[in-house]
Amino acid sequence: MTANALHKPAVKADPAHAEMANAIRFLAIDAVEKAKSGHPGMPMGMADVATVLFSRFMKFDPADPAWPDRDRFVLSAGHGSMLLYALLHLTGYEAVTIDEIKRFRQWGAKTPGHPEYGHTPGVETTTGPLGQGIATAVGMALAERLMNARYGDDLVDHYTYVIAGDGCLMEGISHEAISLAGHLKLNRLIVLFDDNGISIDGSTGLACSDDQLGRFAASGWATCRIDGHDPEAIEKAIAAARQSDRPTMIACRTTIGFGSPGRQGSEKAHGAPLGPEEVEKTRAALHWPHRPFEVPADVLVSWREIGARGRSVRQAWKERARKQCSSDRSPCHDALNRKLPATYTERMAQFIAQLTAERPKIATRQASQHVIDVIATVLPNLLGGSADLTHSNLTKAKTQKSVTPATMDGNYIHYGVREHAMAAAINGIALHGGFIPYGGTFLAFADYNRPAIRLAALMGIRVIHVMTHDSIGLGEDGPTHQPVEHVASLRVIPNLLVFRPADAVETAEAWDCALRAETSPSVLCLSRQALPAFRTEASDHNQVALGAYVVVEPEGGRDVTLIATGSEVAIALEAAKLLAAENVQAAVVSAPCFELFRKQSAEYRAEVLGPAPRIGVEAAIEGDWARWLGDAGEFVGMHGFGASAPAEVLYREFGITPAAVADAAMRNIIRARAS
Amino acid sequence: MTANALHKPAVKADPAHAEMANAIRFLAIDAVEKAKSGHPGMPMGMADVATVLFSRFMKFDPADPAWPDRDRFVLSAGHGSMLLYALLHLTGYEAVTIDEIKRFRQWGAKTPGHPEYGHTPGVETTTGPLGQGIATAVGMALAERLMNARYGDDLVDHYTYVIAGDGCLMEGISHEAISLAGHLKLNRLIVLFDDNGISIDGSTGLACSDDQLGRFAASGWATCRIDGHDPEAIEKAIAAARQSDRPTMIACRTTIGFGSPGRQGSEKAHGAPLGPEEVEKTRAALHWPHRPFEVPADVLVSWREIGARGRSVRQAWKERARKQCSSDRSPCHDALNRKLPATYTERMAQFIAQLTAERPKIATRQASQHVIDVIATVLPNLLGGSADLTHSNLTKAKTQKSVTPATMDGNYIHYGVREHAMAAAINGIALHGGFIPYGGTFLAFADYNRPAIRLAALMGIRVIHVMTHDSIGLGEDGPTHQPVEHVASLRVIPNLLVFRPADAVETAEAWDCALRAETSPSVLCLSRQALPAFRTEASDHNQVALGAYVVVEPEGGRDVTLIATGSEVAIALEAAKLLAAENVQAAVVSAPCFELFRKQSAEYRAEVLGPAPRIGVEAAIEGDWARWLGDAGEFVGMHGFGASAPAEVLYREFGITPAAVADAAMRNIIRARAS
């Protein structure tokens, strides 16, 4: 008996279906009404589909929302959050009480406006920004197949279901996600398209004429169209989808605001309370005579029975897992527990010692390649990839094997030219569990996947972005590819660790920080061009983890402090030599991660920054450097877009040179003495 | 005879075709070789297609690259820039000399790594970031139809041709663009897909299995597949596309690096010089015995004849245009000249005076709605739109009419849930000329269209983004929709004007600045919630244009300066009252546009900021505020993501209140006195 056998669909529709679906509808209606804001139309429209899905198919146990082999349910149309909260409450997730439903959209409630991962048990991913859910679900469905290839059906055998609306499918990220899922034949992915023909401006016909089925079919999906209010049709379609060898899109024709005589089928049902009068009319129309927030006992019992059904399945799974994953050192154990193995710590320390001794003059992207080669051998759950820039990002370890539909035991994903879906997919992979995913692209294209990076930061998940070609130092490709403002723009995203390492050792330390940051995503900004090694003395701790630290401390006190990141640390070091020749004592600080530096004690920060005038050096827009430089400081960097020319010409023409830094230092020392 | 008649395709292929195509190939090969960097594979592969397009169809005149009725050619696969530079040189664009070709990718050359609009005559739009070109072209093709509906075939009758590669079509933005173009039936748009089956990682089959023809067909496009090295097939396909009532995608099967015995058909031809040995082999294989950069005289003459062909067509057009657009006041004249009419200046001044007197307490998005209602009546070339948030962004004027395939005389675009394509399309509309385009979405979704906003800034074009729901002040929708870091992240994009107006008058002034910024894109960050009017005294100049200005100057000198933007100006004003009650003299500064403030004189900036401690107030991440606040300052704002709750609760819980600002002021005054 497989783990899914219990969820074999019933032959006949449950006669209580309508009541159960109405329970969802009225919890949504009542919660939106009480909050005086929210989106009732979608939960009302998709209540039938959700009821069939949860009552006849979903494998889950409200008592253990983190059970690894549960089916995943992703509400890509996140504004319909009350659909999800109603389901969580009705099936018995302890945290989602009726009181929390009543506190919909209130401060501190478990029921915020859009579903938030980590905040509400049972929410698999944060959604709301359209299209993110479906692309994140692709990552989950991919992770499931990858894990299945490693650990077999006994441990990994589940589906990923998505409810997506017109808005999700209009977003560009949906194309990337659909195309990737079709290519990889992710047959455990089932998208339920809420095909209601309405978006905020009105009929979708105002802006869209796509043949959605044709479009999904063109990307290798199975497709069908059903009446989204016919439980038997829904059941049949989902049952068929579960047997498909391809991902499936089921277009569910629904009526937005189903049951509301005055609002159904109109954009007016989408994003505002129905209003007391219309609510009463809807109660009458749907034969739901109950008070607000009241779920009749028999309906609640039916829903709770569904919620209770997964317990035995989960227990059987746990038994199997206990047998197969008992050893602390089994890869399965490490994967399921998301922990770094002890061998990693040893190997990384050894490798950093080696780099310190070898002093390679290489690009930090090359250093990163070496790091990946090393860690791939000790982290079996490392999952690499790049958005079609493998040979530029240098993201593929020698030992990594490409994933294809036929090689799901591989550990390197060719994401294609799909930066946005890649970022969302690695979010999904991290959320699914079992892997530490990273993905590569050029730093300039951080703009393409920014919405997914933001969600990773909001969710607090460990994903790692390897972003190479991190400044004008990439040279001839010119301003479209030179990320002058990207470092600054990433630094303002809360809970995102932005690293700009300056040599091979710092690159390894940055990777180490990123791997250990269990509740933060990281971006590694890496150079195309070679950088000299300066971390040539052994250290007993990870210095990048301090955010910023002193590289050169002049004897006899500082006249000036030069603070730099990445490729500009070498320039600052050269500038310090020029200044020394003029008897000016310059300290040099490397600041690979502003976020981590901010977390250090005020004393440490003051010690590093020092009381002397400060010169910041970064081949980028100033952004928030003023925070570190203070009134007596000056920034040497970019003041606009870059240009197409060899890198050394650009550094010279844009005035980011040792001489320019030394000049700025002299200028500020003199000014400080004069004042 | 229509303006296009001269470009009716010849019945037979030009026998000189191969030589002409090889001229493109070898200019590309030689330039990349000399630069030691660049992308030869695509120009070599698409030389035949480009030769047929330019020699048999394109309407253009190298003597007047800005001729409004020229056909537009967009190289969406911008890395193949040498294809474009070769065409510009061969057809006779004066600026693109053979010496500039030889200076490919060098400092200051007209031939940068990727095509740059405004830098090289004949380049219609900056490309390189994949997918942008095709989406920008949708805007151009839309603008053509809109202009045609207004001014007729005599004045507006041209095509938009795009060369797009696999990468462009994998990017999500391509879906949005294709879907929008298909919906609007933009039949003057013809996409030539460089279907070479190769991307950077290797065979596209590594990452993509899409049926591209099926996908375009699903979005309402005409499609066909041809041999991209067969001139007759290319000609036939383009000729048919020009007759279609829908946009057309022609999949051109090509061989990347065509003619290079050792590289063709391989990703190795994509992004690196062939190397001297392989170049010689290619010369032999293609029977091109000429020296590097040498174009045989007869081949150059053939190309120059093609370049000269458009002159008479353009002259005839100019004659027609002179007759129809001679009056300074004709809308056609204004549209073609992109100027604001005098009536605009009068009406805007009058409207600002009215707002100053009326003192409405309204959301700035509502104020913006009023502005749009007013300016739509005096700017016939204003073109509105929203990414499916019309009723939330309040972007549609009462007098505006929706654009549909049947109503191309309309002036409001329902872009659908396609923020990215909207931003690229308004770039294309602005580049095409004839309109001042604006588009609306939520500020949080600035992350979705950021790559296109960046390109607008890089190109220096006037497009206006109306971004509402600009802070935690949007309330219950929660952190996914609350743009805490977006204002800061937009401020770091060079040449982008980011406005955050604080009341109705400032909103009108910000709109005025944006409309007058002919070489900068603008983002208007607008509140969902109502804000009190404080600009209640008439001003003889646009104060927002100063970037920041003093709203309250206390008599007897300042103890502290409170600097705020947007919705927080009201909080700063309240804080000043609290401080006044304690006998503390607080100045209040409104800082609606940091970029414009930076452009003011040092004296003016010092006067506004003042010598007293400074408190910055913005319901957002600090970003680059330290630049204004200095060592003695403090920032009152957000320190992480928002939350779902009513707006007033959020302001209280996150400590952005008059009392908190007053506390910060007292703290800093005391600290300053102590030091």
From TrEMBL, chains A, B:
This is Transketolase. It comes from Bradyrhizobium oligotrophicum S58. Residues 362-533 form the Transketolase-like pyrimidine-binding domain. GO terms for cellular component: cytosol. Pfam families: Transket_pyr, Transketolase_C_1, Transketolase_N. Mg(2+) binds at residues 166, 196, 198. Gene3D superfamilies: 3.40.50.920, 3.40.50.970. Its cofactor is thiamine diphosphate; Mg(2+); Ca(2+); Mn(2+). GO terms for biological process: pentose-phosphate shunt. Binds 1 thiamine pyrophosphate per subunit. During the reaction, the substrate forms a covalent intermediate with the cofactor. Binds 1 Mg(2+) ion per subunit. Can also utilize other divalent metal cations, such as Ca(2+), Mn(2+) and Co(2+). The active site is at residue 419. The lineage of its organism: Bacteria, Pseudomonadati, Pseudomonadota, Alphaproteobacteria, Hyphomicrobiales. Substrate binds at residues 39, 270, 365, 392, 469, 477, 481, 528.
